[in-house]
Specification:
By secondary structure, this protein is an alpha+beta fold. It has 3 domains: 1-38; 39-98, no CATH class; 101-166, no CATH class. The chain has 7 helices and 4 strands, in the order ααββαααββαα. The strands form 2 sheets. A two-stranded antiparallel ribbon has the order 1-2. A two-stranded antiparallel ribbon has the order 3-4.
Length: 166
């Protein structure tokens, strides 16, 4: 191998190393990108916050809605998410698909009828290890009475409804 050819080969190494690092980074964020692509999240237009600044992990860890802190935020799926503590933010960052409200925070009862209506963070239910938000107490009660039936109808309507969202 000539010296010139050897030098060209070594010149490519930094480029290939950078390319490999970019590929690894893309693979690492693939679950987040997939979650963001599937979920159309309800976002407050004025603040950019998901679920009005409530901590999505707190529903699971505290069994109640809890406001997140402004200094503990994480951007994901076109929204800013707030958390009560660093542990909750870390848990969400590792598994957003587990902690994000199902159907992006839209009410599954109304969604079962083919309409997208944002849920309210104080009208909630954790069922099957997933968080659901509801527009009204009545919708929450109807869901609690038949979660499987409503979820099936909501899942069937979700792709079409999600495509129609702005």
């Amino acid at each position: 191998m000539t010296a010139q050819r050897r030098n060209r080969k070594w010149a490519l190494r930094p480029f290939l190393t950078e390319l490999l690092l970019v590929a690894v980074a893309l693979l690492a964020i693939t679950p987040w990108v997939a979650a963001a692509a599937v979920q159309r999240v309800v976002v407050d237009e004025r603040s950019g916050l998901a679920i009005h600044g409530f901590d999505p992990v707190a529903y699971f860890t505290e069994g109640a809605p809890a406001l997140g802190r402004e200094d503990l935020e994480l951007p994901l799926a076109g929204a800013m998410w707030r958390f009560r503590n660093e542990g909750n933010r870390s848990a969400f960052a590792q598994r957003p698909d587990v902690y994000m409200p199902q159907f992006g925070g839209y009410d599954p009862v109304v969604l079962a009828r083919g309409v997208a209506t944002p849920g309210h963070p104080l009208q909630w239910l954790v069922t099957g290890d997933r968080l659901y938000l509801f527009h009204t107490r009545d919708a929450r009660a109807r869901f609690a009475a038949d979660p499987q039936g409503i979820m099936a109808a909501a899942r069937a309507n979700w792709p079409k409804v999600a495509r129609s969202l702005p």
